Amino acid sequence: MISEKIFELILRNGMTQKEFSEETGISQSTISDWKRKGTNPSADKILKICEVLKVTPYELLGENETERNAGNPEMSAGNETEKIILEGFRNLSDRKKERILGYLAALQED
Fold it and tell me: What domains can be seen in the chain, in order of their start residue?
């Protein structure tokens, strides 16, 4: 659902819903309705939402890698935090992935 992706991207961008509202010009009550009622934004708001969240309309409206891997338990996230971590990791360069794996190994030794 588009609204779920929007809330995920708001978190990923370190924004509050209030900041998102101010930057997009979309009222906080409308944004709350998306979450509470499970509705999606109207088409005329998509470009501004994409601009603020730094994604393309295709990225917002299209299927993402997490959804494609939903049927594979090894590739799916258990909760929102894991989903953000997995998607962030997948977007890193190979060098940065190696660094993260090194940090993880060191943390597990404690």
Answer: 2-61 (1.10.260.40), 65-109 (no CATH)
